Amino acid sequence: MKKKLLLLFCVFPFLCLSQQRNAIWCFGDSVGIDWSNPQNPQFFTSAAKTRGTSVSISDSNGNLLFYAYTRATLPGKTGRVFDSSHELMQNGDSIVGGGWYHEMVIVPDPANSAIYYLFSIGVTSQDSGIYYSKIDMSLNSGLGKVILKNVQLFSGYLMTDCLTAIKHGNGRDWWVISRPVGTGSPTGNNIFVKYRIDPFGIYGPFIQTIGYQNNTNLGQLLFNSDGSKCMFTNLNGLIDYFSFDRCTGTLSNHINIRQVSHINPYLQFGGAFSANNSIFYTTTSVPSYALYQYDLTAANIQSSELLIDTLPVAHDSIGPGLLLLAPDNKIYWGHQYYDGTFFFPYPDTTFNQYNMNLSVINFPDSIGASCNFHPFSFFLGGARTYYGLPNNPNYDLGVATGNLCPVGVIEKEKLNTLKAYPNPTTGMVTIRGLNNVSVIIADVSGRIIKITNSREGELNLSDLENGTYIITAIEEQLNLKVTILH
Description:
Elements (H helix, E strand, L loop, with lengths): L1 H10 L12 E4 L1 E6 L7 E8 L4 E5 L5 E6 L10 E4 L20 E5 L6 E8 L6 E8 L8 E10 L9 E4 L6 E5 L10 E10 L2 E14 L4 E5 L5 E6 L4 E7 L4 E9 L9 E6 L5 E6 L5 E6 L10 E5 L7 E8 L5 E7 L19 E5 L11 E7 L32 H4 L3 E3 L6 E5 L4 E7 L4 E7 L3 E3 L6 E7 L4 E7 L2
Antiparallel strand pairs: 1-2, 2-3, 4-5, 5-6, 7-8, 8-9, 9-10, 11-12, 12-13, 13-14, 15-16, 16-17, 17-18, 19-20, 20-21, 21-22, 23-24, 24-25, 25-26, 27-28, 28-31, 29-30, 29-32, 32-33
């Protein structure tokens, strides 16, 4: 018993730390909130100037380490990283991102407490795919430096604006997840792209197809508080609900809560789980600026939809933004204000109750009006908000309950059951262990070449050019490398 406890301490040392790594929010126009005391948040002036994507991370005591954001209306790579003194971090400019809302996510390196990954995606820019940069907080007297910038992982496709991360079930590693916008189909796709980060590096892509077709580039991937459930929402009103296995990274048990045709049009933007995971909230901008609630414990979740409130403002003067569960277990709703000109950036004179406050769901675990929704009631200390709120994962999530995951890089026993022959091949290849399953064929950069089926363990690859390809069994998420030599 003592040996087992010692092992867990060595593998998961951070589990003993206080849960303060999400204590600092930096977003909007200079908003800074310190949630170290959730019942008495403190405000400060940040260097943030963004209508959308923002991310931040603190140390285990709630002290800000760094934050990053992307900027709209500017060409090129608009992401920037700022240190704890609110100055641009060394080499912290020109990070991939173009002013969307979920383009970045921070992941601590499981191997080194001073190193952090900053993942980012290209949604509508020339920088398609998934990228990462690396930050070393041991440099510049603890203020940090970006030591590696814009390394491409996944290429060939623009990404849906839904980048997120979730702690692996072993409590140490991470999953980073997003979705490509399309694969040539006018109706979209149901593809999820996942990477695993462990002490030895980044592994993937792991490709899975599940759920409803996504046909827009603006969406959101959300996990509940223990990471066992995942929700995908998009601008066209889609809500897809999944179970998530934090050990394997597998989505399952798909439930479609709302399809695109639920109300036409039904423009949807924000979403959030309540603290006890029993209720899901979402917002719309068409047909009205409205807040909806779904009871996830109901036998028919779709039928449980409740309209909580509509914003009491003119439809052309306010825009509903993202929802976010805060450390005080309340859900906050961001908004942008439109004064007749383009709303970003705000003019220096435009301050009002709409852009200086967040709306609040005070008791989000409660059904109906008892959730106590108050619009424009959380004053931001004189700073202003837009659509976006921090896209931070649950940095302090521990080991998956009742789930003893392996902590190794790959479950080698599984991979060793896969054999391809002949390999290299001139075209036809037989794959032992992949009979009658759907497979995705990608090049070594992660660009998807085609999706097909392995019929009785055989694949015809004669239409591919010479090179090395990654074959992924979608359901099993197993990878196999095959080289083609014509």
